[in-house]
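WARN retry 2 of 3 for item q-0093 after timeout on previous attempt; input resubmitted unchanged.
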Amino acid sequence: MTEFDCVIRSERVVTPQGVGPAVVGLREGRVEALAHHEVPLRARDRVDLGKLALLPGGVDLGTGVHVPGHDLQWSYLAAAEAALAGGVTTLVASPAPARPAVISADALQVHRRAAAGAPVSVFLTGGLTQSSGPLDLTDLHAAGAVAFQCSLSDGGAPDMASVDDPRLRKAMAELATLEAVLFVHAEDACELGTPPVPAEQRPPRAERRGLERVIGAARVTGTRTHITPFTAAECAALLAASASVGVPLSAQTSPHYLCLPSEDLVPGSAAHAFRPPLRSDANRRALWSALTSSEEPTVTTVSSGHLPAHGLHTLAWSRSALWTALARRGLGLDTLARWTAEAPAALVGLGDKGSIGQGRDADLVAFDPEARTRVPSDDPGPYAGTRLRGRVEGVWVAGRRIPSA
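OK item q-0093 returned
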C-alpha cells in the first residue's frame, strides 16, 4: 500500500464536483489520492479536520506587491505573509507599481529572484506601456509572464503610463498571436479630467467609456481580455453583450466592492484610495446580481485588490470578507473556491492549481466557515473594525504545512 507524506480528512472537502466528506492523500507536493472519507490511507502524518472545510488555496490575480521604502525581497515576503493569513497560496503579481516595473524580461527576472524565498507560489504579469513593442512582449512571454496588464488611465504611474487606442489595438494583436490574456484597468483617462479627480470621485462613466474602447479593440483582434477591477454595475449589460458580438471578454471584481458601500465610508479609511472608488449600496447590490446571474457569467474572478503602494492592505481578510457576504446570500464554499481559486488559475493557465483533485498541486487551506472574527481596529486595510465570518486554520503549500505566524 502506498504511504503518503500526509493524509487530510474533512467532512467538507471542496472540489469542482461539490462539497462533501473525503480524504486527501499528499505526496511530493501533489494530491495523489482523493477518496471517500472512510478509505484507509497510510501516511507519516495524519490530519483530521472534522467539520472544518478543506479549500483549494486561493489564487490572487493582479496583486500589488511593492511597499514604498522597502526592497523587493522584503515586499514579496510581506505579501506572502498576508496571503497565507488569508488562505491565498498563489500570487499573480501586478507589474506596477514596482521598482523596477515589470515591462522587460530583465525586470521580470529581478522580480523572480526577489520572490524566490517567498513561502507561496509567485507568478508574474508583464506590463504593457505606450512604448512596448512586439519584441518586448514576446521576450516577457518567453521569460514566463503568465499574463499582461495595461491601463487606460493610471496603470501604476509613473511606472506604467496609460496606453492609447492605436497602441492598445497593436498590442492586443501581438498578444493574440501569443495566446496570452490581457488584464485591462478600463477607466478612461479623458473622463477623469486633467488633473485627475480625487480617487473617491471617479465616475462610473469612466469605466463605461473605457469598456467601450476595450470592446472595440478586442472585437478586431480577438484577444482574451479581462477587465480588472470591474466595479460599475451599470456596465454589466455592456460587458455581457460583448459575447454576442464574439468578443472574448471577462472581468474581475474584489470583495471590497461587494461588501463595502460608499455610504459607510468613514473619514480616514484606507478605502478612500481605491481606484475605481467604492460605489453606492445600490451599485453593490447590482454587482452581486451580475455575479450570480443564472446566465453565463462574465464577472468570473474575485481577487483581493491588494495594493500597499496606495495604502490598500486587503490580502489577509479578502477571502473571509467574501465568504461573509456569500454566506448571507445562501451561497456555498464551492462558489468561494470557484471565484477565488479555480477560475483565476484557469484564466492564466495555472492548470495544476486552483482546485483539489488528483494530480493537482497540494495547495490547501483548512477553513472554519462558522468562526466569527473581528478585524482589529488598527488594521491598515479597509476592513478595520468589521466583524467577519470564516477563519483560516491551516495552510499547506506544495504539500508542506506552513506554521502559523
